[in-house]
Queue: 2 jobs
Job 1
Amino acid sequence: MATMESVYLRSRRAFLLQTQNSDGGWGYFPGKQSWLEPTTYAMLALHGSTGSEAAWNKALDLVGSWQTPDGGFRPTAAVSTPNWTTAFGVTVSSIGGRNGSAQRGVDYLLQIHGIEGDDRMAKIVSKLLPQVALDRDPSLLAWPWQPNAVSWIEPTAHAVIALRLAAAAKIVRPTLAQRVDLGQRMILSLRCQDGGWNYGSRSALNVALPSYSETTAIAMLGLAGRPESEIKAPLDYARKLAATPQAPLASAWLRVSLALHGISNEQDPNQTVSEYDILLAAVEALGAEGGNAQLLQPGAGERAS
């Protein structure tokens, strides 16, 4: 007899298979155009499950068709330039054995960093707002949402995950491990006073900013592989968040994050799958008991160096 947890996971995977677009991808909502973010998480949620192989391979082909000559990945067919979603292209290419595509994506990610890393942001701030100090170390090179912008927590976490998966797929680049370490250290350095993470800063105009549950969960994904001593306090905070009511997507991300760090978190076995939110269903499946959260953690006990 199937357990309640397996019913929970199976219902979400079935929903994902039913809502795959004819081009092989997934939109944020059923019947809408395919985007790389929901496609990636649907693929991760379905990976290795019964009856998903053809759907997975078709999606992987679509993702590969979105790679640009410079190695980046477009976020959707209708956008001509790559951005932060390149990390997703690297992630599924590495897991799917498309090492040539993953390698080109890695090269793209390694040449991108936030503009604070080349002193431009410091100069702008010192000129326009001399009374405001940057709350970050510009030497901790991290990733922006798009080139020539400031680094933020979420794109940095996704890039770190992608680079670690590429390294596990035997893609070797001299600066890869260093950029993973710098990105993770940047995340750690921007932890808010309340224990979690805001979108990209700890403060604004010298006022401490609050953290957000969803951003905190994604930050913790990016910190997988760090020494336990560095992440114990934020992990404890994430556990407290998971034990309190949250928005559905934040709750789902917290479950994925905790599962990645080896901590189980109960879900409501009677919670029905959303009939309209594909990303939510994919993240719920990824973090469910028996789900694929560990796909995002290459190498048990591995530590960034």
Job 2
Amino acid sequence: SPFPQKIEFLNEINKLILVSYYSQSFAVYECGEMIRWGPVSLGKASTPTPKGLFFTNWKSKKTYSTVDSTWVLEWYFNFANFDGVSLHEYSLPGYPASHSCVRLFREDAYWFYYWADQWILNANHGIQAYGTPILIYGDYPFGGRKPILELEKNNQILLQSNELLSEQLKPYLELIFNRQKEREEAIRDIDQKSRILP
């Protein structure tokens, strides 16, 4: 894996998805321990995947692209609702080729579908609690040599160091932790109300 097995400063973060544009790969962490990683294909130069912090929203086992209705998107998990950007199964050519989504192998998309959390909406369809945090970061050398082709010369080239990840995550850690607490409180409230109802 290009990602570290353990990230100490994430010990209190229940769930987190990291996606590196440069290495075209993802890693999933629970309380600082990496539990899964794999390849992705992010947005090509003309339709880049938005970078920054997002939270998983809603999901569908099968939906159709808003760009081309003939494209079937399976194991779809949205994380940018108004832009229609998501994690989903689709072909992985080894470089950024999507229309801004995060393409995954089928088995990874299926796994995310059941592992990641959906948002919780209130009675007015506003967000009561956010889903699983996903951070997309880094740059890809569009027009240049693909980083994956450099592995033969330098097998460390795709590595995502703890220092790099700390730099990328530091601005968002407080928000991630606060939304995690809000989610826990929302789930407790829902649980208590369900016990009261006949």
